[in-house]
């Protein structure tokens, strides 16, 4: 186990050398956040999903598309990519939302269109709920909004626990992550094929021990976070565009996206045929259209 931990540590260092930061850093409350900023115009903030990082949006082409019209800010959330994740904090969507409010304020953003994908949608909703004056409009992609039974949340719990979680994250989890990577991608992208452009996503960054532990922590808090957050959806007043793939194999979009659309009277729902959970990769132009729709609706 010690030898495995040492090897995984060395592989993690190599992954970081091979994939150096492409953006800038800002320190907020002891958290060193890595972010990329491109383009000009109305601010647009993108939050990635669990286990992911800036390169997900970058490889999809969404950043390039958005930067043609918007001041696009993409952040590595705490523990992912090149952002730190202090251990003395439970990184719920609400806590992350408070952190990002301060970060955006430091960057001179007073109001923004906010897009969140998957777990990032929970952060976007928390930001809108807790700091509504900051969020001009919401775009929610492939999100999980209401509590339901989830086996992935239960199986991730051991890796999220103090002590045991560290042991697993530095020994077995990175090995399992590499072995399961092809199967996981098929499930995340299905029914679509994994596009060639996703080859630019650095898998080795995702299976670093620190990121594996952060991902386990976020998976384990999915259900309780959704339970707490769902109590506040009724108070949201900003234009909201909900987009989801009809073939999502991770989340039941009827019980999640469609239900949220029914609750938010100012929302619209875009169901994309043939797309799965990774809708920003498989249907990038549809997600860009959702952003533009949200931007237009703020003008009326």
CATH level 4 superfamily: Alpha/Beta hydrolase fold, catalytic domain
Q: Give the biggest beta sheet.
A: 8 strands, mixed
The whole-number mean of residue pLDDT values reads 96
CATH architectural group: 3-Layer(aba) Sandwich
**Treating each run of at least 4 consecutive H or I residues as one helix, how many helices?**
14
Q: Determine the structural class based on helices, strands and strand pairing.
A: alpha/beta
CATH topology: Rossmann fold
* β-strand amount: 15-25%
User: Radius of gyration, Cα only, in angstroms?
Assistant: 18 Å
Spatial separation of the terminal alpha carbons: 60 Å
**Large-scale geometry:** globular
Q: Kindly give the count of domains.
A: 1
Biggest sheet: strand arrangement: 1-2-4-3-5-6-7-8
Got a strand count? 8
Helix share, percent: 40-55%
Helix and strand run: HEEEHHEHEHEHHHHHHEHEHH
What report would you give on this structure?
The chain is α/β, with parallel strands linked by helices. The chain has one domain (22-150, 190-205, 224-297): Alpha/Beta hydrolase fold, catalytic domain (Rossmann fold, 3-Layer(aba) Sandwich), CATH 3.40.50. The protein is built from 14 helices and 8 strands. It has helices spanning 2-18, 54-60, 62-67, 93-106, 119-130, 151-160, 164-170, 172-189, 203-206, 209-220, 222-229, 257-263, 279-282, 284-297, and strands at residues 24-28, 31-38, 42-47, 70-75, 112-117, 135-141, 240-245, 267-272. An 8-stranded mixed beta sheet has the order 1-2-4-3-5-6-7-8, with helices on both faces. β5, α5 (119-130) and β6 (135-141) form a beta-alpha-beta unit. α4 (93-106) packs across α5, α6 crosses α10 and α7 (164-170) crosses α10 (209-220). The longest helix has 18 residues, at 172-189. The termini are far apart. The mean pLDDT is 96.
């Amino acid at each position: 186990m010690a030898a495995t931990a040492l090897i995984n540590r060395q592989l993690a260092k190599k992954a970081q050398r091979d994939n150096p930061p492409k953006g800038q850093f800002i320190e907020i409350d002891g958290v060193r956040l890595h972010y990329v900023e491109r383009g000009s115009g109305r601010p647009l903030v993108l939050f990635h999903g669990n286990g992911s990082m800036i390169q997900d949006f970058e490889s999809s082409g969404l950043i390039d598309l958005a930067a043609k019209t918007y001041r696009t800010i993409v952040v590595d959330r705490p523990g992912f990519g090149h952002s730190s994740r202090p251990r003395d904090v439970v990184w719920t969507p609400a806590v992350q939302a408070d952190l990002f409010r301060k970060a955006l304020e430091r960057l001179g953003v007073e109001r923004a269109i906010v897009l969140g994908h998957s777990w990032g949608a929970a952060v976007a909703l928390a930001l809108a709920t807790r700091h509504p004056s900051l969020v001009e409009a919401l775009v929610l992609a492939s999100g999980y909004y209401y509590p339901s039974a989830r086996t992935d949340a239960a199986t991730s719990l051991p890796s999220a626990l103090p002590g045991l979680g560290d042991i697993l994250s530095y020994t077995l989890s990175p090995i399992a992550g590499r072995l399961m990577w092809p199967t996981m991608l098929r499930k995340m992208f299905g029914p679509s094929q994994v596009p060639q452009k996703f080859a630019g996503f650095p898998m080795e960054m995702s299976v670093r021990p620190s990121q594996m532990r952060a991902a386990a922590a976020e998976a384990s808090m999915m259900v309780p976070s959704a339970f707490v957050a769902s109590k506040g959806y009724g108070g949201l007043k900003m234009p909201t565009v909900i987009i989801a793939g009809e073939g999502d194999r991770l989340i039941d979009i009827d019980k999640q996206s469609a239900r949220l659309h029914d609750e938010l009277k100012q929302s619209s729902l875009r169901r994309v045929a043939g797309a799965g959970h990774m809708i920003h990769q498989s249907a990038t132009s549809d997600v860009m259209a959702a952003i533009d729709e949200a931007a237009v609706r703020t003008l009326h």
